[in-house]
Amino acid sequence: MPLSCMVAVPAFTMLYLVVTYVLNYGASELRLGYTTVTLVSVASGIIMLLGVLVTSRLSDRIGRRATLIGANGLATLWAVLLFPVLHAGTFAAYAVAVVVTMFIAGFIFGPIGSYMSELFDTRYRYTAVGLCYNASGILGGAVPPLIAGPIISAYGTIVFGTVLAIMCFVCLCCCIALPETKHRALDVNMETK
């Protein structure tokens, strides 16, 4: 179960990083204006929805695990690139940073519901999925914003990006260690396999 708690962490990290840090950075540091930042945010929400739709379908074709491995690998790479792109200081770079980050979050959110449900035996599926999904939300949505300020002020954004990349890489390794569930029937007892 601990491995299952890690597969969605990068999605929450990307989502809450945009909501807490990147939007504030665009409004206060780049001085893009709240209307512009809000419009980019709305556009990125639509792009995130497209990411969810793409990987939901993709996970039905190539497998949930394979899709999540690719998406978490992409999140690992993007964590390193995000801050250099963001700090280019232009509106275009800001928009790319927000949209790509939310698209990657959508890539992970797409297959996560079916994947987590298929990982657990029927008799404790609801509890296990709820626990894993919420643990992912806490680890990915709360920890990075809490540590961002101290790390960025002491060492800069490149170090914080590296910390995020390491965290995403650990989650990628957890995806690799978990089984594929694409062809697994939901009514099969997992403990007997």
TrEMBL record:
<keyword id="KW-1003">Cell membrane</keyword>
<feature type="transmembrane region" description="Helical">
    <location>
        <begin position="7"/>
        <end position="26"/>
    </location>
</feature>
<feature type="domain" description="Major facilitator superfamily (MFS) profile">
    <location>
        <begin position="1"/>
        <end position="182"/>
    </location>
</feature>
<dbReference type="InterPro" id="IPR005829">
    <property type="entry name" value="Sugar_transporter_CS"/>
</dbReference>
<dbReference type="InterPro" id="IPR020846">
    <property type="entry name" value="MFS_dom"/>
</dbReference>
<feature type="transmembrane region" description="Helical">
    <location>
        <begin position="32"/>
        <end position="54"/>
    </location>
</feature>
<keyword id="KW-0472">Membrane</keyword>
<dbReference type="InterPro" id="IPR011701">
    <property type="entry name" value="MFS"/>
</dbReference>
<feature type="transmembrane region" description="Helical">
    <location>
        <begin position="154"/>
        <end position="178"/>
    </location>
</feature>
<keyword id="KW-0813">Transport</keyword>
<feature type="transmembrane region" description="Helical">
    <location>
        <begin position="91"/>
        <end position="112"/>
    </location>
</feature>
<keyword id="KW-1133">Transmembrane helix</keyword>
<dbReference type="InterPro" id="IPR036259">
    <property type="entry name" value="MFS_trans_sf"/>
</dbReference>
<keyword id="KW-0812">Transmembrane</keyword>
<protein>
    <submittedName>
        <fullName>MHS family MFS transporter</fullName>
    </submittedName>
</protein>
<dbReference type="Pfam" id="PF07690">
    <property type="entry name" value="MFS_1"/>
</dbReference>
<feature type="transmembrane region" description="Helical">
    <location>
        <begin position="66"/>
        <end position="85"/>
    </location>
</feature>
<feature type="transmembrane region" description="Helical">
    <location>
        <begin position="124"/>
        <end position="148"/>
    </location>
</feature>
